Amino acid sequence: MNAACARRGLARRTKLCYGGWVARYASFAGEEREVIRVETATRFLTSVVKDEDCAYATQKQALNALAFFFKHVCGVEDPVFGVKLRKTGVRVPVVLSQGETQRLMETLESAEQEPEQKGRYALAARLQYGAGLRLSELVRLRINLERKIVASHKATKARSRCRITWLVGRIWGSPDR
Q1: Do the strands 149-156 and 159-164 form a parallel or antiparallel pair, or are they unpaired?
Q2: What pTM was estimated for this model as a whole?
Q3: CB 34 within 8 A of CB 49
């Protein structure tokens, strides 16, 4: 599987994802003979759709991983799985109120923590919340206080996202600090 992914230049995360789905499929199939049968893959995908409460995108991801596996690893020319994917309902995101957000930030800075842990994650949490950063962007931040720019490099799909931040001044107290 890794060699097939590498030949096609797939991203590291795609390799991990496809490998995970193929590993789950292999444990579902059991025997080696069953792994290379399209009918077994159809049963697996049907169980993912019906038995697991997962999003449409997750179902599609499993389908794409198995299609890749059968085409590029097993050599099946055009595998037809015959599975109808199920659309999931719209999920409403959970949004914290202003008071709840304030309490959360205060908890991160509270004195109840051990002295060396006090406020350890407070700045990162304020940056992530205030700038709307993804976690992957947060860990790749580059901050330029002189230009007042917070940039997240190679955040998603090898693109950089820059945010001109009035936020820098709000987080550290004043823009001059």
Answers
A1: antiparallel
A2: 0.58
A3: no
Q: Is residue 23, in this structure, part of any structural domain at all?
A: yes
CATH number at residue 6: 1.10.150.130
| C-alpha span between 80 and 7 (Å, rounded) | 24
168, pLDDT greater than 80? no
Give how many domains the chain has, as a whole number: 2
Same domain, 159 and 102: yes
Q: Is 121 helix (H, G, I), strand (E, B) or coil?
A: coil
* Nearest-angstrom CA–CA distance, 55 and 171: 36
According to DSSP, the β-strands at 141-144 and 159-164 are unpaired
Per-residue pLDDT reduced to its tens digit, 134-143: 888 788 777 7
The three-state secondary structure class of 156 is strand
